[in-house]
Amino acid sequence: MSLISCYAAQSATAALSPYKIERRKLGENDIQISIEFCGVCHTDIHFAKNEWGQTHYPVVPGHEIVGIVAALGTNVQKLKIGQRVAAGYIAGSCQICSSCKAGLEQYCLQGFTAIFNSPANDLGGFTYGGYSKSIVIDKNFVLLAPTGLDPAGMAPLLCAGLTTYSPLKHWGVKPGMTVGIIGLGGLGHLAVKLSHAMGAKTVMITTSKGKAADASRLGADEVLISTDVAAMKAMENQFDFLLNTIPSPHDYNHYMGLLKVDSTMCIVGSIGPTSELNTEALVYKRRSISGSFAGGIREAQEMLYFCAKHQIVSDIEIIKMDQINEAFQRIQKNDVKYRFVIDMRSLS
Amino acid sequence: MSLISCYAAQSATAALSPYKIERRKLGENDIQISIEFCGVCHTDIHFAKNEWGQTHYPVVPGHEIVGIVAALGTNVQKLKIGQRVAAGYIAGSCQICSSCKAGLEQYCLQGFTAIFNSPANDLGGFTYGGYSKSIVIDKNFVLLAPTGLDPAGMAPLLCAGLTTYSPLKHWGVKPGMTVGIIGLGGLGHLAVKLSHAMGAKTVMITTSKGKAADASRLGADEVLISTDVAAMKAMENQFDFLLNTIPSPHDYNHYMGLLKVDSTMCIVGSIGPTSELNTEALVYKRRSISGSFAGGIREAQEMLYFCAKHQIVSDIEIIKMDQINEAFQRIQKNDVKYRFVIDMRSLS
After folding, report:
1. Which residues contact B113 (CB under 8 A, 6 or more apart)?
2. Best mutation site among A277, A287, A289 for testing chain B: the one with the most B CBs within 10 Å?
3. Which of A132, B43, B232, B320 could in theory staple to B346 by disulfide, Cβ–Cβ 3.0 to 4.6 A?
4. Of A99, A252, A277, which is closest to B252 when you measure between CB atoms?
5. Distance (Å) from the C-alpha of residue A160 to the closest C-alpha of chain B?
6. pLDDT tens track for A253-281
């Protein structure tokens, strides 16, 4: 069975899959969303291919969801059928631990429920995600889609946007600061737009000279080529914050000297074992390496309104559902500017 | 030539050394200190043996100095001859950069001047440290020794004390917090005393069950054996701050799960390349790894008064100058509780 037959199983096209997925029924606190668009994130590929060894097949990826309210549970008052809504990676959490109470559901101490591949009360025992025509989600994890933003371009905000917005806000990015965005991909291109909109001097840090023009178009004030030893040396101790979006293991130490005293590089791209850490740059300037994952629900809503205010959406290429395998292959070759979004109306 | 002949050269005992070291003359802003006691730090060994490849021979180590004012430059008003004073690792800085203005001379953007082995206007071209009967230091880098503390036990506060006090203060250690001190050596034993005095629940984290009793005596509320998998698991997400004093490369990732969301492990022991970093623990709980080096001058003075108030000195073993080689060997075997201090009156 091909991978596509797993995650497209929800199409109920028997030819594609031996699986018949029973999606979650509408509970009293739930919202059923008719999905218009779903972004394609590298995480979807990791799960589809079981690259992290955690996949429960059949898996339905997809966690950058924009759609229309199709049905409401009896306890849901705040929304109406026909409204546009959105949902991201976090689809459940304990709601009572210190993290949840602080609006940090992504750091729930009981472990959050992901929108797909998480143990849950869906009929198959696991959550199924947004590569689907429809999804049922707890009302506490559904966001209002602001008006005035293209719904397809909005979809990647739900993961790539939030994953970069959250650390930029947490580390207090504002006018007067110099912020470096490392890596220009799905996350990086939104990070540049967001940091620029927050008023910081925003520097795109990339290995690739060819990306300079595009970085400027997206809002970068400067481009720093990280393989240019003299340029890197000239920028030592200049950055108030670095957001590292590189999605694969690499030498973190290469960037640490760019940070001012007491400043932080935050990792959002590469999760897992990476390079040997050299503590010298940490110790001699009290610098930090940190990480950040997705964002909380309150923060996700705030991010969507921020993007509406600043007219920020993702640069996207819209595909049909049956182009997903090609899209996966192109993502793995970094051949996308900067995010694929599936038009779910193409799923018959 | 043996190593001892290098760093004992200032004794002017021709039999010990071919070097005749010319120490810095008293300038108008300088203070000459007649040294009573000098602590022995592992850093001294690294430089004596050129283990970091930075040593300019002849080198005179020693950066935990307590002594008596012997002479004052014409511009020095605040001290009197006969007063007890102290000095640590930082003996000069630009005084005008943002770090220096913030009282963070240890992070001077021009680079600080270390009390030994730094380029300087000493007659030999490099600073010479505290394994000596006398030293001349800029008045801005000399500290008042508080009364009521044993001067020999006070000496290690100038490096080991400050190196642990500074991060404990910077990360806001206070009552209600749970703080882990990793590693029980020269730095660790003072960190336990300081964290306890700051009112935090202080947990000694060590590989060695044999150190439990001593950790409790020093002020640890609990001892966590880091090789005990079940005990480590039980303490996941429990710590507000970890101070890592282990002096050699080791697996940092082993400790990161102990930290609460948004909390930091600060490295003060091991400077240089270490283990492979796994970003998972950083990303999924927004934890940080940071570092800290020594402390600023204002902070060093504050630390001495804090120690006087709480009657904190180092646990020491006093040696004579001619026992230094044996002391070095014992330090390298971790055979000291917890710091050697040289009685400089033993240097003829």
Report:
1. B90, B91, B92, B93, B119, B120, B127
2. A277
3. B320
4. A277
5. 15
6. 999 999 999 999 999 988 888 888 899 99
Identity (one letter) of the amino acid at A162?
L
Q: Is B310 on the interface with A (CB under 8 A)?
A: no
For A3-159+297-307+314-346, which CATH superfamily applies?
Medium-chain alcohol dehydrogenases, catalytic domain (3.90.180.10)
What does the pLDDT look like over B186-235, one tens digit per residue? 999 999 999 999 999 999 999 988 889 999 999 999 999 999 999 999 99
Does the beta-carbon distance from A292 to B276 stay under 8 Å?
A: no
Transcribe B111-144 into DSSP letters.
-PEESSSSB-SSTTSB---SSSSEEEEEGGG-EE
Alpha carbons A79 and A283: distance in angstroms, whole number: 51
A288 to chain B: nearest residue by CA?
A: B290
273-292 in chain B: CB under 8 A from chain A? 273-292
Chain B contact present for A176, CB below 8 A:
no
CB B21 within 8 A of CB B134: no
Indicate the domain borders of chain A. 3-159+297-307+314-346, 160-291
Mutate: best of A105, A263, A278, A284, partner B, most B CBs <10 A: A284
Residue of B282, B306, B308, B309 whose CA lies nearest to B295: B306
* CATH of span A160-291: 3.40.50.720
The residue-averaged pLDDT of A158-163 equals 98
pTM of the shown model: 0.93
Closest chain A residue by Cα to residue B109 = A237
Quote the CATH superfamily of domain B3-159+315-346.
Medium-chain alcohol dehydrogenases, catalytic domain (3.90.180.10)
> Distance (Å, rounded) from C-alpha A145 to C-alpha B47?
62
Distance CA B113, CA B115 (A): 6
